[in-house]
Amino acid sequence: MKTLQKITALLAALLLSTQVGAIQISSSGDSWTVDWLVDSSTTSGLTQDLTATSNWLVSSYSSTQIVLDITITNTTLLAGLLTNADMTSFGFGVDPNATASLLSAGSTFTTVGSGSGPNQTYPGGFNDIDVCIFFQNCSGGSAPNGLRAGETDSLQLLLTGTFGSTTELLFFPAKFQTNQGSYEPGGCVNGQGCSSAPEPSILALLGIGLALAGFAFHRKSRRA
């Protein structure tokens, strides 16, 4: 039983590691994309997919400051019963921890809140979030109001901290407020993981885990 429990824990850790969005940066010129998806086919009460995309560029990198240029678009298509789908906030973690300020605010995303390092939780249960960028507040505000479907916003962000040769940005959660509820998806970095279907690597891990579990059970049965 102990062997099976260890295999199950290892498999869970491997699965989690394939789903967490993260990017490592090390110099000016580094760039990547972050996408968001709330799949209506697997989400009760939602009649249309919620989607957004963003482009990120490191315009300056030093041991104490990082400047990020961010352009974000709410690509959700309103149709049928979905009449409102605003993107109200987004954020990310930084390793090592950092504080943030806006060098240039967007037209929608006008405020940035710095977290408290490893203790801050973003809506939806995302931990280790250092930076939250929002319209009303990080939790989304009292009413649906933010980056509307089809709109684009651009901003420039300054991160301040003690950085090494590489810095990791991770999780990239976002919040949508719609007439069909509120949703907080994690970000998909460079197109990885934005799918409701298991990726081939995840399926392979599941197969390995099941095979190992079966082998452990078979050995225990023979000993009995």
What can you see in these coordinates?
This protein is α+β, with helices and mostly antiparallel strands and 224 residues long. The chain has one domain: Mu homology domain, subdomain B (Immunoglobulin-like, Sandwich), CATH 2.60.40. The chain is 19% helix and 39% strand. It is built from two helices and 15 strands. Strands 1, 5, 7, 10, 12, 13 and 14 form a seven-stranded antiparallel β-sheet that branches. β3 and β4 form a beta hairpin. α1 packs antiparallel against α2. The longest helix is centred in the C-terminal third of the chain and has 24 residues. The radius of gyration is 20 Å and the shape is globular. The two termini are 13 Å apart.
- The CATH homologous superfamily name equals Mu homology domain, subdomain B
Unreliable spans: 4-19, 196-206
Beta fraction of the residues? Answer: 35-45%
Count of distinct strands = 15
For the residues shown, what is the average pLDDT? Answer: 82
Q: What is the makeup of the main sheet? A: 7 strands, antiparallel
Question: How many domains make up the coordinates?
Answer: 1
Q: Tell me the radius of gyration.
A: 20 Å
Task: State the name of the first-level CATH class.
Answer: Mainly Beta
CATH third-tier fold name: Immunoglobulin-like
